[in-house]
Specification:
Strand content: 15-25%
Number of strands: 20
Shape: elongated
Strand order of the largest sheet: 1-4-5-8
Structural class: alpha+beta
Helix content: 40-55%
Mean pLDDT: 90
Number of helices: 22
């Protein structure tokens, strides 16, 4: 479905849940847990929603997972009490997969709303396997045939409202799927009240005799259908969890804007703002992950890949919803701890959903297991083609693109530069930079019209991942990732002609001149002056002042900087954006050693430095708008998955060398971090698409910088912990014949949470500019 159609589905769902007073009906369910769960199903059937996933040939709406996810997300936003996920999700998905006459007949009844079949598959707590373990059936002898069923099933939803059960069992040779109407002899049912007011059933089958037509499918077809239905259901469950989390954030923001203490709205308190921002970040990453997984699932995946994607998004949305539920109760104070507050309904619904169909820990581990299998199948690069300078990268299959990049790195990247533990200097990376430049691959995100590769967002992520997995060091790249994109959007044609080709060729190496002593994150407080002047050589600026924390300025020959051009104007109105050749007389550069002992940062002093007037980007005194655009580029760059992927690769190298994956605690922590990085890539893709479309980045891009740097820091901390005594070793070590520095990611991530605007400043931006919390 296209975006317009998805939006229409969502609006229709939201309208229904508001009109039907879904939240109030959930409260009634909580107060009367024995009430009929299917009480509102007739209205659901009138909308056609029981068939939202059924094909049109069966009378369904054929919305696909993406369309159904919008309905489930809206249901989560209103804690709708109807068993949509269990019946219109799981059961409909299973029956739609089978394509047998009996299954088609059952699906038609489900679509019409006259039957609510429940899927009975789980046999032990925490089990995610679609293969029945103990519940068995055997063929009955005689002319009538049929089967005999024996065993148990747990947590079957819905409970008392179910008209019958779709039961998975183990036959003599393989899986079997059966239909069992309610009232079948030999079935005992125990209703289990759930925390959200709904019910589950535990079923026991004692010598249950079923006719031959009760067998819906058997063998590989039955197992494949069950696996795909469960994976699709887990994706839809993620959408409902996300909707509940988003609703809790909205309720909390409304409360913080109106509740006052000490004569001020409590939403103005920075500590509470930052708690809300963290809720927002988790939910936005979850939304990005859900969008990506739905897009991938629509391509038609094999069952194991679909299961991996389902576990990925379910773990993310479960964690985000749980975090939102706990934080929202805390931020509501005492009223949040009462059943009178609607928040309690969402809190309990999230508890219920997060425990059913596998919890977050189980899904992380399943994703890790399935991903290892997939990665092992990929193997090393087997690329037989060439390395084109330009191509239709969007049309190239991702697997081929990755093999091409991997082969190029194996053939061209210097082995001695793999896994560098320090920030690479220009002298080390110059030849590699020139190799990429000659290949036409030095600027993967630039438009092809300006000499870049023009990679779409998915290929850009693949590019980053392949470079990080190979251990490619980061070259001095401020020209590529910052000033180049800025000039493409805001530079004059003459500036583009003069500077862009020299960035691509490596003739110009750039650094950034933003920070100043005592200014910190307050860029508008800068004091470096650039006074307009004119002489025989023409119009120019005379620059005096100092910049600090200028990364690798000692290797650069050009600097882009913010300068004050009107001392009398208000702070943000008297600033301009200049480009300057660092070889100009009057410039002094002094390196500063970092916590790691590396001369990565510098102070740059300007003493009557002459800068040509044509090096002004944008309007005079209009530099603040340019600065904000550049900060957007910087934050999306700092929010890229590059550093975290590199650190995760280092952690994996250490874990393999020390056999740490055999430790279940380490394996769980690694699996969580791996998903943090993977889902960072999903969020990054959305913002990268905005840049690619030439649109200004929204203030919400700050969430990327926070998530990326804090994920990087968590990986670095676990790396040092996993290294044990080696975590105290200064400098490089050898690991499997390659250099390895245990401390480098931790120390580097410490800086990452400071530069580009501290993470606290980023949270302030999100709290005020995105969440609209009071000052």
């Amino acid at each position: 479905m296209d975006l317009e159609s998805l939006s229409a589905v969502r609006e229709s769902a939201l309208d229904y849940f508001v009109r039907s007073r879904a939240t109030q009906r959930r409260r009634q369910r909580m107060e009367q847990p024995d009430a009929d769960e299917a009480g509102g199903w007739r209205d659901i059937a009138a909308l056609g929603w029981p068939g939202m996933l059924a094909p049109e040939s069966a009378g369904g709406l054929a919305l696909g997972l993406a369309g159904a996810a919008e309905i489930l997300r809206a249901a989560g936003e209103h804690v709708a009490p109807e068993p949509l996920l269990a019946v219109a999700g799981l059961s409909a998905l299973l029956l739609s997969e089978l394509h047998t006459p009996r299954a088609d007949a059952l699906l038609a009844e489900l679509v019409a709303g006259s039957s609510l079949p429940a899927l009975a598959w789980q046999e032990s707590a925490g089990d995610l396997s679609a293969v029945p373990l103990a519940c068995g059936c055997e063929a009955l002898a005689g002319d009538a045939g049929g089967v005999l069923l024996q065993g148990e099933k747990l947590m079957v939803l819905p409970g008392a409202a179910a008209s019958g059960w779709l039961v998975s069992a183990r036959g003599e040779d393989d899986a079997v799927l059966l239909w069992m109407p309610r009232g079948t002899a030999g079935v005992s049912e125990t209703l289990v009240p759930l925390v959200d007011g709904s019910q589950a059933s535990n079923l026991r089958f004692e010598q249950v005799r079923l006719p031959a037509d009760a067998v819906l499918a058997e063998g590989p077809a039955a197992q494949e259908a069950l696996r795909r239905a469960l994976a699709g259901g887990q994706i839809l469950q993620s959408a409902e969890l996300l909707g509940a989390g988003q609703a809790m954030l909205a309720q909390t923001l409304a409360y913080l804007r109106t509740r006052s203490q000490f004569g001020k709205p409590i939403g103005s308190f920075q500590a509470l703002q930052h708690r809300c921002v963290d809720m927002f970040i988790h939910l936005e990453v979850a939304q990005a992950t859900l969008d990506e997984v739905l897009a991938v699932a629509a391509q038609g995946l094999p069952a194991d890949r679909l299961e991996a994607e389902a576990s990925r998004v379910n773990a993310r949305c479960t964690a985000a919803a749980l975090q939102a539920s706990r934080a929202s109760v805390q931020l509501h104070g005492a009223i949040g701890y009462t059943q009178e507050c609607d928040l309690s309904l969402f809190y309990k619904r999230v508890l219920c959903l997060s425990a059913w169909l596998g919890n977050a820990s189980a899904h992380r581990l399943r994703h890790a297991s399935l991903s290892r299998d997939a990665e092992a199948a990929v193997g090393s690069a087997d690329w037989q083609g060439g390395f084109p300078r330009t191509a239709d990268w969007a049309a190239m299959p991702e697997a081929d693109f990755r093999r091409m990049v991997r082969a190029f790195l194996q053939q061209r990247y210097p082995a001695q530069l793999r896994y560098l533990s320090h920030r690479a200097r220009w002298s080390e990376m110059r030849e590699w930079y020139l190799t990429l430049s000659a290949q036409g691959w030095i600027a993967p995100a630039w438009p092809q019209a300006h000499g870049g590769m023009g990679l779409p967002a998915d290929k850009l992520i693949a590019w980053i991942e392949e470079l990080e997995q190979h251990g490619v060091a980061r070259a001095p790249d401020q020209g590529i990732v910052m000033i180049g994109p800025l000039l493409i959007q805001h530079g004059t044609p003459e500036q583009q002609r003069r500077f862009l080709p020299r960035i691509l060729s490596g003739e110009h190496v750039w650094c950034q001149g933003y920070s100043e002593p005592n200014a910190g994150s307050d860029l508008a407080g800068l004091r470096t002056e650039a006074m307009p002047a004119r002489d025989a050589q023409g119009e120019h600026f005379v620059v005096n002042g100092q910049k600090i924390w200028t990364t690798l300025a000692q290797d650069a020959n050009h600097i882009f900087m913010l300068v004050r051009t009107d001392k009398d104007a208000r702070k943000q109105e008297g600033i301009s954006f200049l480009l300057c050749d660092l070889r100009t007389p009057g410039i002094t550069i002094r390196p500063i050693r970092t916590l790691a002992g590396e001369p990565e940062f510098c102070e740059v002093f300007f003493d009557n430095v002459r800068v040509p007037a044509e090096n002004l980007v944008g309007k005079l005194h209009g530099g603040w708008a340019i600065a904000k655009a550049l900060l957007g580029f910087e934050r999306i760059f700092l929010g890229s998955p590059k550093q975290s992927q590199y650190a995760l690769g280092q952690l994996a190298r250490l874990a393999q060398a020390r056999r740490l994956f055999a430790d279940p605690v380490f394996a769980q922590r690694f699996a969580a971090l791996r998903l943090d990085v993977l889902d960072l890539s999903a969020a990054y893709t959305g913002f990268a698409n905005i840049v690619r479309a030439g649109k200004p980045l929204p203030a919400s891009v700050s969430l990327l910088k926070i998530w990326a740097s804090e994920t990087y820091h968590r990986i670095g901390a676990l790396l040092v912990e996993a290294a044990e005594e080696q975590g105290a070793v200064a400098g490089d070590q050898l690991l499997d014949g390659q250099s390895f520095n245990v401390l480098s990611p931790l120390i580097g991530s410490t800086a990452a949470m400071i530069y580009g605007g501290t993470n606290e400043i980023q949270r302030n931006i999100l709290g005020r500019q995105v969440l609209d919390l009071p000052v």
